[in-house]
Amino acid sequence: MQLLSVASEIYPLIKTGGLADVAGALPGALAGHDVAVRTLVPGYPSVLARLGKAKAVRRYDALFGVPATVLAGKAGELDLLVLDAPDFFAREGGPYGDAGGRDWTDNWKRFAALSRVGADIAAEGIKGWRPDLVHAHDWQGAMTAAYMRFGPAHAVPRVVTIHNLAFQGRFGADIFPHLGLPPEAWGVDGVEYYGGTGFLKAGLVSADAITTVSPTYADEIRSPVHGMGLDGLINGRADRLHGILNGVDTAIWDPATDPLLARRYSVRALGGRTANRRALEAHFGLDRDDAPLFIIVSRLTWQKGMDMVMGAIDHLVGLGGKLAVLGSGDHPLEGAFLAAADRHRGRVGAQIGYDEPLSHLMQAGGDAILIPSRFEPCGLTQLYGLRYGCVPVVARVGGLADTVIDANEAAVGAGVATGLVFAPSDPLALHGAIARTIRLHASRPDWQAMQRSGMRADFSWTHSAARYAELFRALVQEAV
Q: Residue 415, by phi and psi: left (phi above 0), alpha (psi -120 to 50) or beta?
């Protein structure tokens, strides 16, 4: 089976979050199920720099007003189709905004272009290759499904995956005439969304199947609380909704082989974690001791509950804990974490930005990873924590609820606990979870049993890739 994946980021070439990890790991996992994936991605400088010998397979004189070329090539094991449109993607800053965090004002045009090309490839193929189906990711790729539905590729099956429903790609109605869609695409059953243009909404109404990145999140988004205004649409398409849990790339995330660690270790030899702990303390300027060390590797946003963490730092330090934070996001929260590090020198450290090698060291050297999200489609950092023996402390939402077994008395007694789960996602519950974590950390046998249970859990792509492959085959057969 030949599959075209359309994604705005892909690890290890360009990454802002879990979408990149999934887009990068799923092709390799699907190969074992006889599904060959080619991924269409924007030609950001970091992507073009890593692209091997490439060949131009499609050209546009004026793709939304700019010249563009589709390049076919490989980056490592990734089979890529790269949309090389310098006017859209050769920019300093991030994939969606400038260095100051402001969204590019032409994002609608940039990702409509990506989707338009995806639909063209679905319809016409390239150099003797044509996909059997198309898999589009989040709002940046979702318009691919709409272009296919209202164009010549309408018979090719299309899947849209929601990685985070909070990001929907909403723009004004004034852009519709410039999208190149027929007039009938404007309406409640098309791209119109509350009087404007909705990219994700258009993809969801046009998809043959909708997937989310965890079963619990698939249930949550059917409610007004988590549906972000799209719950009605999603409930209307519930028979096409599938919750498939994300996996992790176990070749990259393996403490026994990870080259980014100060010292490698395994579930049978946890002592190796100490060297990573010392390296982590040194990096963040933390006191060298055995106090429970919490880590955070996250976007610093309201969704992630980082404002609640700010209110809990004095509590955490007062109970004897330490905290190391790596992330970026809302500027007031970035400043607040830096101020907390200055206020609690030796007990709190913060680094603003993203650092992939450091994130590995943090998982290997931290005792517990704190994830108090108000909503969380899947979450990957808790899976990395489980794999590395860094005990997750998580809110009972979305994929966090699906992947962490709470250390209640029965679970600890049975030796099956893998972390601490709290609800609701509010400051009081977070304070309680921090206190409970510190108490459990004091019981070394119970703590190490919890670490080992987490490390033995299987969160590879094995089962999830099989579910994706089964869904893809059913859609292809349905289309015959």
A: left
Are residues 236 and 375 located together in one domain of the fold?
no
Residues 207-234 have pLDDT tens digits of 999 999 999 999 999 999 999 999 999 9
Note whether 468 and 34 are within 8 A (CB).
no
Q: What is the dihedral angle through the alpha carbons of 398, 141, 231, 470, rounded to the nearest 10 degrees?
A: -60
Chain position carrying tokens 């050209």: 59
Name the helix (H) or strand (E) containing 308.
helix 306-318
* Side-chain-side CA neighbours of residue 297 (13 Å): 27
27 touches 5 (CB < 8 A): yes
CA 290/CA 307 separation, integer angstroms: 27
Which domain range does residue 435 map to? 270-456
What is the rounded CA–CA span in Å between residue 138 and residue 168?
A: 8
Residues 237 and 99 in one domain: yes
Residue 55, marked binder: no
pTM, to two decimals: 0.93
SS3 305: coil
Does 350 have pLDDT greater than 90?
yes
Q: Beta strand pairing status for 196-198 and 420-422?
A: unpaired
Q: Helix H segments across 77-220?
A: 86-89, 107-124, 138-149, 199-206, 215-220
